[in-house]
Write a structure and sequence with these properties.
homodimer; 337 residues; mainly alpha; Glutaredoxin; Glutathione S-transferase Yfyf (Class Pi), Chain A, domain 2; 2 domains; four-stranded mixed β-sheet; 45% helix; 5% strand; globular
């Protein structure tokens, strides 16, 4: 078998267009991203004001003698250009947008769509992001090749990294009060990235009824796990009442909450189709968390963006067209709430 | 459908015993972990010296007025007890062990197996870790409930967090030189956690021939992606020759390298069964990376631990017994290298 003949993701959470894209391999191909991007840049004028900071190239440092040693990071300067390739309906894109709003750096990030590079299956896009997914952030610094970064959590951490003094300090997991709460915040992020994100498609994608029902049961079990994680956070911050608001990093909102929130916009919209809801009266911590986030402007903004897209899906009859409503009607045993 | 009736993981990377374990839900059940652990502790004397540090409870802080504010973390004290539930063959467990060796904290972590709690499917184990996986770290502090942490990356970050002044500084991604290299280190970690970890089972688990062949092709494509990430790291540190050693955080070893290494022990052992190898003469950066890691004592130690287990699988005829060798023989088109 040719090991570069196909690229089939082992995980579909962040996939919007996967198919069987061609996969760029080998060191020589690695170098092509810069020119591909340059071509794209020529044909698309930036939509937002771009910063004109000129920063010397970083990273070319003398190798130290041992690969395990006492070094530390260089001081951080923001890059000269940031472009986010995104789709309004993407919950993973929404997570990056949410952090951009909270950091108040909208004017520093050009918002683009994969269409500008020919779509996520195009050679130009795959040269930058072989997984063929959104979101993707393309970073530029003077004297360096453009660097594409895939995966929403990587992009969020990068933005926090290059804008260290911007936005609410509490957003950064490193600033969460205790190591146990930091571990719980990271655990919640991981529930989204490794489990929930993969299961979410069962609410709106084509699949057989049995696979769908099994995935939805798994999704609900992950919501139970989130309730457990919130209970553990509550204990650590001394919160006794389940109506009391606790976030995944304790008393304040951090990136773990941002990671999960956009998927909950999908859940509140779609679970009722299956006679379910995200809280079911038995996940009180999660419900209090959700209601508290809805009171924050940046979260409400992102929710409105996603709902506009989902309303469009609804108006076009997505759940009827994909036979999902038929599955629910024809398999009452499978979809019994 | 009862949303707590079954727990079917959407991801099998870190699963050793999943099945259909019972799933603990609701706030009241959340509180049971401490007593379960206490019962276990009574019947099993610690195997290693335990630290006797007495630390006041942390985390119970006064809520600030806004959930998005300028707070920062408390100073860190190590917990009073750490117990790692692990299996020698687990690549995810090996990743935690590797970091324990690099931090030189073996004497501070009790090494246990899930068997001591009745196995990963037992009620006692699932009360602590509803995903039913290894590794799991159980953290204790005076005056607090025992806190179980699942998922190798969460455990690794927690250990780095509570032992901030221990081990090589370069191990921490926060100390990698530039934000771009940090993003690449996090990207490589994520390739392991979201993609490779999920695909690895295709080399040694029961599945139909077509699923196996497709998964192995995807696995090889992920190795191509790792080569691309290393090429990008190399550019950022000014390395021109593919024989030059570059790690996923640049010139020095960080946790991203630790995340990937144990799976490569599986790959070097098993890919030859499919007439493949992890480098194929076309992933020179990855090959130089692998050879450099093998020169580090902690990595060689973990490799030996895993290989002992895999030699045992081989001696018991695992690949013949599961019909994998038959699949390769019967489907030459599918498994054509």
């Amino acid at each position: 078998m040719s090991d570069a003949s196909a690229f089939v993701a082992g995980y579909s959470g962040e996939v919007h267009n996967v198919g069987s894209p061609r996969f760029l391999t080998g060191a020589s191909k690695c170098e092509s991203s810069s020119s591909v991007l340059a071509a794209s840049r020529r044909s698309h004028a930036p939509r937002e004001r771009r910063p004109n900071v000129v920063i010397p190239p970083m990273g070319a440092r003398t190798a130290s003698t041992s690969p395990l040693s006492a070094t530390s990071a260089d001081a951080v300067e923001p890059p000269s250009s940031l472009a986010l390739y995104d789709l309004a309906v993407s919950n993973f894109g929404a997570r990056v947008r949410l952090v951009i709003y909270l950091l108040e750096i909208e004017h520093l990030v050009q918002m683009r769509t994969p269409t500008e590079l020919g779509g996520t299956k195009s050679e130009a896009y795959l040269a930058l992001n072989p997984q063929g997914k959104v979101p993707m952030l393309v970073v530029e610094r003077p004297g360096q090749d453009a660097l594409p970064l895939a995966e929403s959590e990587i992009i969020v951490q990068y933005l926090l990294d290059v804008f260290p003094d911007t936005g609410p300090k509490s957003l950064r997991i490193a600033n969460v009060h205790t190591p146990e709460l930091r571990a719980l915040a990271r655990s919640a992020t991981r529930v989204q990235d490794v489990y929930l994100g993969n299961l979410q498609g069962s609410l709106y994608k084509a699949m057989d009824a049995e696979t769908r029902a099994t995935s939805i049961r798994s999704l609900m079990a992950q919501l139970d796990l989130l309730e457990i994680l919130l209970c553990r956070c509550a204990k650590l911050v001394g919160s006794d009442s389940a109506q009391d608001v606790v976030f995944f990093g304790g008393r304040q909102i951090c990136t773990a909450d941002c990671a999960l929130f956009p998927s909950f916009v999908f859940f509140e919209f779609m679970l009722p189709l299956f006679s379910l809801d995200p809280f079911q009266g038995r996940r009180p911590r999660l419900e209090a968390w959700w209601r508290a986030l809805l009171r924050e402007g940046a979260f409400e903004k992102v929710r409105a963006q996603i709902r506009t897209e989902l309303d469009g899906w609804q108006a076009k009859g997505r759940w009827a067209n994909l036979g999902i409503l038929d599955q629910i009607r024809d398999h009452p045993q499978l979809f019994k709430a």
